[in-house]
Design goal:
alpha/beta, BirA Bifunctional Protein, domain 2, 9-stranded mixed sheet, 3-stranded mixed sheet, globular
């Protein structure tokens, strides 16, 4: 069994714009083979993001509401429609070279879903896929949204998993453009677990599903011989 060396960083809380810039720099470094495959876990400040296929009418909040709740808005280069990120959510950004696995986007998406499904199994929660809809569901409520970009077989973006997220923020969008289904969280299901504990479960399942040999590093280790210049990284 081939083991793929992969660095994992629990970045903690981050601003979306800064993390998007970090992803771009990691993508460039992976393309040049300057770094190994890398998975970042983070928890964003309040933000709505629009993917390439988004309908702007799926944002229901007006400017005053966005300002009042300190919610930023970004148009980005992942697939999918509008979604929300915020405190209490675990967001995962794998920067993987799929040619070392399988050059197949559907293979990658299904494997991301499997990581999430297995993590929920570890918590004694049954989850499911819904045909033709990307993500992971508890009956008809989404607990994890997935939106990715793959270029030259290197991945960006990833998934957002609702742990103890304030789900009322989803009321101001039509999540992923899906009108007839809801969202849920571990907290809403009566499960209390820290983001750090949850990340450890995700890593265990990434290791199994993708056959990874995972090394945990901190952000300073990754950027100490920096191809990326940013005061945000160095602080």
């Amino acid at each position: 069994m081939k083991q793929h060396p992969t660095n994992v960083i629990n970045f903690g809380k981050s601003n979306y714009g800064e993390m998007w810039e970090i992803q771009k720099q990691l993508f460039s470094a992976r393309l040049k083979n300057e770094i190994s495959d890398t998975i970042i876990f983070t928890e964003h400040e309040n933000v709505f993001t629009f993917g390439k296929a988004s309908d702007k009418n799926h944002l229901l909040a007006n400017e005053a509401e966005l300002k009042n709740k300190s919610i930023e808005v970004f148009e980005i280069d992942r697939g999918g429609d509008v979604t929300f990120h915020g405190p209490g959510q675990v967001v995962c950004y794998p920067i993987l070279y799929l040619s070392n696995y399988k050059e197949d986007v559907h293979f990658y998406l299904r494997n991301l879903e499997e990581v999430i499904i297995k993590t929920l199994e570890n918590l004694k929660i049954f989850s499911n896929r819904i045909p033709d809809l990307t993500g992971v569901w508890i009956e008809n409520e989404k607990i994890a949204a997935i939106g990715i970009k793959v270029s030259r077989w290197i991945t960006m973006h990833g998934f957002a998993f609702n742990n103890f997220t304030d789900l009322s923020n989803f009321d101001r969008i039509i999540p992923c453009g899906i009108f007839h289904k809801g969202v849920t969280s571990l907290n809403q299901l009566g499960i209390q677990i820290s983001n750090s504990e949850l990340i450890n479960l995700f890593c265990k399942n990434f290791s199994e599903v993708f056959e990874m040999n995972i090394s945990f590093i901190n952000k300073n280790e990754l950027f100490k011989n920096s191809f990326y210049e940013s005061e945000y990284i160095k602080n």
